[in-house]
Amino acid sequence: MRVHTLDLQFQNTPGLIAAYLVESGHELALIETGPGSTLPALQQALQLKGFQPKDVRHVLVTHIHLDHAGAAGWWAQQGAQVYCHPSAARHLVDPSRLVDSARRVYAEQMDTLWGAMLPAPEDNVTALADGESIHIGETQITAWDTPGHARHHHAFVMGDACFTGDVAGLRLGPQPYLSVTSAPPQFDPPAYIASVDRLLAAKFSRLYLTHFGEVTEVENHLSGYRRRIEEVHQKVRGWISQGLSAEAIETHYREDEKALATATGLTPKDWQRHEIINSTQMCAAGVRLYVEKNASI
Questions:
Q1: Which PANTHER family does the entry link to (predicted)?
Q2: 158-178 pLDDT tens trace
Q3: pTM > 0.85: yes or no
Q4: Helix runs in 107-245, H state only
């Protein structure tokens, strides 16, 4: 069994979005598809590994945000079976509501950023419940329900490894800065921490982050990320209690995160890479929305 990291070159920038190709026996599985806009880069990355799209018959997506599953419908239309969370399946079959919602946010940038999200034939979409598995050659891949970033989020477990989607956060390569993936509207800190604790208890030897790459210092990474989730939650809760506006909260959030990133040695160029894939404006909005909806917690 081999795992290949495929860099999707999102916005012509390396190291932001990964898809993972699992090669076992004579079968292939693709974990994450990236957005429709990176489909040509994904096809090219496959070809560089010696494969064609027709060779991939199994596709797994951790959740249906466009940076993770935007191209899933294309793969299903090529005949691949797409596996997802039960709450995600209907949105892959009919992505119109998802696309309309994203277009309201991204407006004229929608097509450039994300490309097309095609509908998947219903027969080519399989929902996996928590603990259900598929086999790729001799390899078993098991879905774990891991809410917190989104309610429809799976991590995929393969032996002592875990493909984490967004549940283990964002760390671009070997850089120490950990960015909390808290996009609205489903960011939920208690659920998030419970999911991270589930990963911690499993004592995986490595994680595969969609954003971005392999992590081998698993306990340190997950423990640090657990602290970061609580940190941003409490900061935003404090700012709201002080009566700060949404705009002021976004400014404070960006300044605090940039200062933290800089203190870890992040360069201005690498900070911009983080803002491309996990903008502080978006993250601040996600945390604020949770706090406003759960003011008594």
A1: METALLO BETA-LACTAMASE SUPERFAMILY LIPOPROTEIN, METALLO-BETA-LACTAMASE DOMAIN-CONTAINING
A2: 999 999 999 999 999 888 999
A3: yes
A4: 110-114, 189-202, 218-241
